[in-house]
Design goal:
heterodimer; A: rod-shaped; B: 229 residues; 73% helix
Amino acid sequence: MIELGWTYFFQIVNLLILYLLMKRYLFKPVMGFIEKRREHTEGLLKDADESFSRAKALQADAEQDLNEARRQAQAALEQAIEHGKTIAKELTDQARQEEKNRLERAQKEIEEAKVRAIDEMREEVANLSVQIAGKIVEQKLDEDAHMHLIDEALQRMDDAHVN
Amino acid sequence: MDLEFSVKTMFYLGKIPVTETVVSTWLIMAVLVIGSFLVTRRFKTAKPGETLGTTEHVVELLVDGLYSFIGDVMGPKGEAFIPYMATLLLFLVCANLIGLLGFRPPTADLNTTLGFATMSFILIQGNGIRSQGLFKFIKGLFEPFVFLFPLNVIGEIATPFSMAFRLFGNILGGMIIMALLYGFAPIAIPVLPHIYFDLFSGIIQAFIFTMLTMVFVAMAIDEDEEEEN
């Protein structure tokens, strides 16, 4: 039942051959694949980390831009308000000036109308005076000499009135 | 009852006899190698992110498990031994379980177990010499006292024999008991003993043989480290 022989050497050689074949066909490919996948996974994780930090940087940039934009918008708004106020003031001033001008023009017109009316009235009074005087003295006077006399009288009246 | 337990010679290669043990060993080798080749074909072409099939996952789990288990036992210096130890464990498990298929287990032949134990002996002593140097290694045999040298040598040589006979005896014993059992109760009764003698004992003995080889080799390669510290 127990006898040592050629089988002893056969089995040692068999074990060595099996070892070499298993190493080549089982352990190397499987461990190689596991290693490859580990590297792949690490690469993915690294990529994800990089993407994350890049995203964070982008977010920070975006926030900064947003704040900048907000600041600019605020400034623009304030500027616009300022500008609006200036325009409103200008318009008000202009309107006030126009109003004043119109008032002055109207006063001037009134003044002129008054002067014209006084002149007309004076002429009328003169004519009336000539007619009245003509009727009173019933004496036909030279009209030119008459007018001269009346003008002189009026002048005197005016001077007296002025003085 | 006429039972014959000696190993039959199947045929002759020239003048060299090829026994039943060798033939069943070749069968196991063929199954393991061809199976490995077929299963790992996809591992070579697969892209890292690709999802593999169920078979590939099982094989990956097995190989990864073996690597981490043996790596844990032998430490970082023993990484180079992992493929050998894993091969040894896989082969011994298959060899001890092949009895379930009606073949004679190769491990029920002292030639096999002593051959494997010889390999373990060479690995243990060879790595002992390599890590300590020949002088220190021989000096170690004279410690702690000079006159303990014979006992130390016997202790070292006894290791492979104890491993070989333990495995051989367990498997052959189980085989004999099963054969006797089949002699008087061939139906139903042998199921439970099969579970014990073939499955349980077979896997345990394969594990013990491999574990002892791993521990002794790990001790041999760790020796110099202890001295350095």
